[in-house]
Amino acid sequence: MTKVKFLILGAGPTGLTFARKLKDAGENSFLVLEKEEVAGGLCRSVEVDGSPFDIGGGHFLDVRRPKVNEFLFRFLPESEWNLYERDSRIELDQMTISHPFEANIWQMDMEHQISYLISISGAGCNRKEPMPERFVDWIKWKLGEKIAEDYMLPYNQKMFADELNELGTYWLEKLPDVSFEETLRSCLAHKAYGTQPGHASFYYPKKYGYGEVWERIAKSMPDHVLYGQTVNTIDCDKRQVRVASGECFEADHIITTIPWNEFVHISGMPEELTSSIRELKSSAVETRYVPDNLDTAAHWIYIPGRDKPYHRILVRHNFCEGSRGYWLETRRERCAEYKGDENFRYMNEYAYPLNTINKPEIMRDLLKFAESRNIIGLGRWGEHNHYNSDVVVERAMKLADDCIDKCWYSYGE
After folding, report:
1. 3-class DSSP state for residue 263?
2. 3-state secondary structure string across 278-319
3. How far apart are CA 50 and CA 279, in angstroms?
4. CB within 8 A of 352, min separation 6: which ones?
5. In terms of Cα–Cα distance, which of 346, 353, 377, 378 is closest to 54?
6. Predicted confidence (pLDDT) per residue in 304-343, tens digit
7. CATH of domain 2-40+207-281+353-406
8. Contact (Cβ atoms closer than 8 angstroms) between residue 278 and residue 272
9. What contacts 215, CB < 8 A, 6 or more positions away?
10. For 3-20, what is each residue's pLDDT tens digit?
11. CA-to-CA distance for 24 and 22, rounded, in angstroms?
12. Nearest CA to 221 among 1, 3, 15?
């Protein structure tokens, strides 16, 4: 039995940030358990065809959280990153336009512009119609029939689930209404208007994949990160975790950043909660390398078309210095459509948490109970929320700071 004050499950961006902040504060009674042989989680990188390949898909460091960047630059200095202005595009039939869709309709021919403008003017949100409850109806209400049918619905089907009405709409409410006035203005002025998307400016390492920064953080505290430790069971009452080798760890506080479904057995938790965990859904996504260069300046391209299995192209040679080729992201259920491709590929069993209708209630009750036992779910998988890496770093920094200040605290208040 190994006993520590803090036990952190998972050496991805969330777990490593929390651990490093403890270390910075002089706390040494902590361990990080990682099932892989290298740190980084979904942000790990490997070398493919002589250049970095991010096996978890496209991960970039957004500029919008300077405290996060300041923290990460301690380990991979800013001089070792390139700064880019985002160039992302959407491939639609025989056309390619810039992202976001509604701000760049002006790049289409006149007939398409007119049809999309008419559709936007008739969107339910612009006509002050009641907000629908079902996902598909909500998308049409928010964006208009044509953008929904041509882009948003097929793209979400390819990325998340074939049956979109299994998803809730609560996570979409942050999307701004598609403004007919701004869309018309952009068509007349041949210029994008409206809100900029995330990662409008972003950093990517000059000589490495995105996984390099996480490996460096892990290497900065080698005595605290244990690799090859697959967590099997957790005892909520005793705050004990057992790994596949049979070794047991006990802690005053457990921070779990791994998917709740990874626990083979959970004891000390009400049956209704353990049953509800099995209702949490996620998607598995394959990343696949293609050695050819593309004739585009885009960093990535969204592919809503149903005729292609993949939903996104990451154009590696446009953001990773000295590299060539690109990689594809494809939901597992669609990978069978590939034929005769022997290029490198990697399947991420846990890529995106799915925002199913009942997820908020499940996670609310689960996290509340776990917290009552000094077990905190944190990050994309601990909270089952589609957070980007900069967001989980920020959340881990906040939790660590509050733990240090108060020894413990009620996370989320």
Report:
1. coil
2. CCCCEEEEEEEEECCCCCCCCCEEECCCCCCCCCEEECHHHC
3. 41
4. 159, 160, 282, 283, 285, 386
5. 346
6. 998 999 999 999 999 999 999 999 999 999 997 776 677 8
7. 3.50.50.60
8. no
9. 38, 39, 40
10. 999 999 999 999 999 999
11. 5
12. 15
Give the global pTM.
0.94
Structure tokens at 121: 């003017």
| Helix-helix angle 180-189:110-121, to 10 degrees | 160
* Dihedral in degrees, nearest 10, Cα atoms 157, 160, 163, 168: -120
d(CA 188, CA 304): 26
64-87 confidence digits (pLDDT tens): 999 999 999 999 999 999 999 999
Say if residue 238's pLDDT is above 90. yes
Could you write out the DSSP letters of every residue in 114-146?
A: HHHHHHHHT-TTTTTPPPPSSHHHHHHHHH-HH
**Euclidean distance between CA atoms 316 and 308, whole angstroms:** 20
Mean pLDDT rounded to a whole number for the chain: 93
Domain ranges in the chain with CATH number 3.50.50.60: 2-40+207-281+353-406
